């Protein structure tokens, strides 16, 4: 049995007998305490915002809570809790994790019509809470699209307008690389800063926004719960080739990018080593503080030559975990989290530490909560955001894609079409192994 299939089989075994494995059987929480896990670094500003949300819920409902913030190996630790029959009651986690968590039997189905305030949420957000079987397995909590955070002071120095096409974007990146935009007399700046490493699939994660902006995709729906691989579609290949040209022909990407994750790339941008960062809104407040509000701007991702517009859509859901003795409290927390009050707390205004990046409750006026108008670019881009499909396990698909895309960026002699053909075959095999082909 392959390692991947063995892991799936083990997960299925662990998922059986989950009754009573929530807070009612947890050694870390008492019977009347709702245990909430969130994928954030402990003691971070985001973890503190999550605690504010939990405290406000307790004040409103009387239900005691315990917030557990974990960043590293979050999914591994969830698996360990499942093995011990001690799943938390609530998990706030990425929308892309829905398929994997649902296929392991960890999630309760959510009655969309029976969730107070559910009718106020955007349909796009509900789509990201829906499994491949058409059933809803979470309450939407936060949305996210992607845009370009650009050094405005550099762009004005090189006398170029905001890019409206990919050709414009290349021209801006070349100017940032070649025209000494920071004025220090050294050739030490790049156009793009890119988290192009393979850890957690970052190369694929980054490339996906340009793939979607060009009308491409990794998979295409092919019936209920079924998909076909499209990694070698000409529009997808064109987007990956565009980025390979930035690494290899134009040489407009920060050195070492093929090994970097987002943690390093954030710092590269802050140190002024590059001027164009395609990223989500969660770092905007950080960059305002570290770089200066007058030095940065947010611009939409230009439409690709063969498609668009579109960027990666992400966010977080509130997952109601199976096996708990606190189903009523779970539902109350989900209803509070999606309410205008819960959304506002999670947004944290313009300060760092937002756990609601874009509100999914249509009754929340983001402009009234956040004074920084640059958030509007992300919100407008969200209308065309593309979420990862709810396959049983998205992680290996993103990882396989990242390995292939990283390879053509790291090896300038690699033929993009050939590598993407090989990736398409891998994804087809992966879909078959997940019974999603």
UniProtKB/TrEMBL annotation:
GO cellular component: ATP-binding cassette (ABC) transporter complex, substrate-binding subunit-containing
Alphabetical list of SUPFAM superfamilies matching this protein: Periplasmic binding protein-like II
Any Pfam family: SBP_bac_1
GO terms of molecular function: maltose binding
InterPro entries linked to this entry: SBP
Top-level taxonomic group: Bacteria
Keywords associated with the record: Signal, Sugar transport, Transport
A GO biological process held by the record: maltodextrin transmembrane transport
Signal sequence coordinates: 1-20
PROSITE patterns, per the entry: PROKAR_LIPOPROTEIN (PS51257)
Entry similarity comment: Belongs to the bacterial solute-binding protein 1 family.
Protein name: Multiple sugar transport system substrate-binding protein
Lineage: Bacteria, Bacillati, Actinomycetota, Actinomycetes, Streptosporangiales
């Amino acid at each position: 049995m392959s390692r991947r299939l063995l892991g799936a089989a083990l997960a299925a075994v662990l998922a059986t007998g989950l009754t009573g494995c929530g807070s009612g059987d947890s050694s870390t929480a008492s019977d009347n305490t709702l245990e909430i896990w969130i994928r954030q670094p402990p003691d971070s500003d985001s973890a503190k915002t999550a605690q504010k949300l939990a405290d406000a819920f307790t004040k409103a409902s009387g239900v005691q809570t315990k917030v557990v913030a974990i960043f590293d190996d979050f999914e591994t630790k969830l698996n360990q809790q499942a093995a011990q029959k001690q799943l938390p009651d609530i998990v706030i986690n990425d929308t892309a994790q829905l398929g994997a968590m649902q296929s392991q039997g960890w999630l309760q189905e959510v009655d969309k019509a029976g969730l107070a305030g559910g009718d106020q949420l955007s349909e796009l957000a509900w789509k990201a809470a829906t499994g491949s079987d058409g059933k809803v397995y979470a309450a939407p909590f936060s949305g996210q699209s992607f845009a370009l955070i650009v050094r405005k002071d550099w762009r004005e120095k090189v006398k170029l307008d905001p890019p409206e096409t990919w050709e414009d974007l290349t021209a801006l990146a070349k100017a940032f690389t070649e025209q000494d935009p920071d004025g220090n007399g050294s050739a030490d700046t790049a156009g793009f800063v890119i988290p192009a490493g393979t850890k957690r699939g970052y190369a694929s994660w980054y490339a996906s926004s340009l793939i979607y902006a060009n009308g491409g995709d990794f998979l295409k729906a092919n019936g209920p719960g079924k998909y076909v691989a499209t990694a070698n579609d000409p529009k997808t290949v064109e987007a990956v080739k565009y980025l390979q040209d930035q690494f290899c022909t134009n040489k407009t990407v920060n050195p070492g990018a093929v090994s970097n994750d987002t943690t390093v790339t954030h710092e590269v941008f802050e140190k002024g080593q590059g001027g164009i960062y395609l990223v989500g809104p969660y770092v905007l407040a950080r960059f305002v503080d570290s770089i200066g509000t007058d030095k940065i701007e947010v611009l939409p991702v230009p439409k690709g030559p063969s498609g668009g517009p579109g960027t990666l859509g992400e966010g977080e859901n509130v997952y109601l975990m199976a096996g708990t003795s606190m189903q009523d409290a779970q539902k109350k927390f989900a209803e509070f989290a999606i309410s205008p009050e819960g959304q506002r707390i999670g947004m944290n205004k313009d300060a760092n530490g937002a756990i609601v990046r874009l509100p999914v409750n249509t009754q929340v006026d983001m402009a009234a909560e956040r004074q920084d108008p640059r958030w509007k670019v992300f919100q407008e881009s969200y209308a065309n955001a593309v979420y990862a499909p709810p396959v049983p396990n998205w992680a290996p698909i993103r990882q396989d894609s990242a390995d292939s895309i990283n390879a053509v960026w790291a090896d300038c002699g690699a033929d993009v079409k050939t590598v993407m053909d090989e990736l398409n075959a891998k994804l087809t095999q992966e879909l078959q192994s997940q019974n999603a082909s």
